[in-house]
């Protein structure tokens, strides 16, 4: 037996807070869920965003070492941390404005998703062709600033 849950609010009689109740329906199933194709696209957007982050983590140290083979382990570790954090830090700084754009009539969630995925893709290409630590950080920071997909998804 498959259950689905719906949370409903009831208007308050005067100034008391609204009451919440959960209704369980036996008729709601995965098959009856509308727009499964859109849910699949959102899942792919989130998965792709995660994969670009994880794949960069695996190569970051070695890419930075190729820029300066004489760099010490301490310097490379610091550079790796900065390069990894630059994406997330700039994403944190721009997540609220991207949420505003996604909810605005002139913006929209689809546009924010497309801009975020395009920005992430371009930043990955920029990082791949970077020849310095500064280039990696700049492209990662730009990618994080352009990426509004986490809040929208």
Describe the fold and architecture.
With 153 residues, the protein is mainly alpha-helical. It contains five helices and two strands; from the N terminus they run E-E-H-H-H-H-H. Strands 1-2 form a two-stranded antiparallel ribbon. The longest helix has 32 residues. It is elongated.
Give the SSE map.
Layout: E1 4-10, E2 19-25, H1 36-67, H2 73-103, H3 109-128, H4 133-146, H5 149-152
Antiparallel strand pairs: 1-2
How would you sum up the global shape?
elongated
Helix-strand topology string: EEHHHHH
Largest sheet: 2 strands, antiparallel
Strand order of the largest sheet: 1-2
Low-confidence segments, ≥5 residues, pLDDT <50? none
Mean pLDDT value: 84
Structural class: mainly alpha
Helix content: 55-70%
Percent of sequence in beta strands: 5-15%
User: What radius of gyration results from the CA coordinates?
Assistant: 22 Å
DSSP E strands, number: 2
Between the first and last Cα atoms, what is the distance in angstroms? 29 Å
Separate helix tally: 5
